[in-house]
TrEMBL record:
The ABC transporter domain, residue ranges: 12-256
Name by which UniProt lists this protein: ABC transporter, ATP binding component
Gene3D superfamilies for this protein: P-loop containing nucleotide triphosphate hydrolases
Record family assignment: Belongs to the ABC transporter superfamily. Ycf16 family.
Domain of life: Bacteria
A GO term, aspect molecular function: ATP binding
Keyword annotations from UniProtKB, A to Z: ATP-binding, Nucleotide-binding
Length: 261
């Protein structure tokens, strides 16, 4: 799918989305619209559907859409394969990045980048040209070149895995990046490096969705909108000060919210 959209059109539209896994309803009518240049934060208790939403947008096969639509760049992607979604510009940063023994980080990044470039009708990069590009991007996340020769995420610390995810994002240049608890397990220094990398990569043509429990990531990256999820629904949307209120009052404060329509 190639975009023919205007800059004023939304990148992502989730409309009344309901989904289940193993016949268990998880999402129960989620609607979310992301325009170019916007940063959205999604917050909520464990098990409320935040990660499920991210996986369904990315095309995870374990979930069944039972109602509603996902539109990316104006086209319905409900039935689009995960690989095609990734190539077209949807990026998902995992809460727990997996290790891939025997596959060098450099080769993994090169193949992924060239798949994206091919989709965009750009010339694929040979090994030498790609090494120059990836060395430039390493500066964004302050990673040593030694990480390129190691197997993907194998033996990486939690912070190194998250920085490697942001490196992938920098190389792939997605239209929308969904970062699922990127701050999870990070110390203060690693959090600041990851947040700085995200800010350097974000631009007026890209949308970002941050899924998080805590205010500390949002201290580094100020969102345009904050959405509170509960029981598979977005029950409240506000600006960045809503996250501050959640930090102060906790999620029990949200128990009396009525789902916004």
């Amino acid at each position: 799918m190639q975009s023919k959209m205007n800059e004023s059109d939304p990148i992502l539209e989730v409309k009344n989305l309901s989904a289940s896994t193993d016949n268990l309803p998880i999402l129960k009518g989620v609607s979310l619209t992301v325009y170019p240049g916007e940063i959205h934060a999604i917050m909520g208790r464990n098990g409320c559907g935040k990660s499920t939403l991210s996986k369904i947008i990315a095309g995870h096969p374990s979930y069944n859409i039972t109602n509603g639509d996902i539109k990316f760049l104006g086209e319905n992607i409900n039935s689009l394969e995960p690989e095609a979604r990734s190539q077209s510009g949807i990026f998902l940063g995992f809460q727990y990045p997996i290790e891939i023994p025997g596959v060098s980080n450099l080769e993994f990044l090169r193949v992924s980048t060239n798949a994206r470039r091919k989709f965009l009708n750009k010339e694929e990069l040979d090994t030498f040209d790609f090494e120059e590009l990836v060395k430039e991007k390493l500066e964004i996340v302050k990673m040593d070149q030694a990480f390129l020769s190691r197997s993907v995420n194998q033996g990486f610390s939690g912070g190194e895995k998250k920085r490697n995810e942001i490196l992938q994002m920098a190389l792939l240049e997605p239209k929308i990046a969904i970062l699922d608890e990127t701050d999870s397990g990070l110390d203060i220094d690693a959090l600041r490096i990851v947040a700085s990398g995200i800010k350097k990569i974000s631009n007026a043509q890209t949308g970002i969705i941050l899924i998080t429990h805590y205010q500390r990531l949002l201290d580094e990256i100020k969102p345009n909108y904050v959405h509170v999820m509960s029981d598979g629904q977005i029950i409240k949307t506000g600006e960045s000060d809503l996250a501050l209120e959640l930090e102060k009052k906790g999620y029990e404060w949200t128990d009396n919210f009525i789902k916004e329509t």
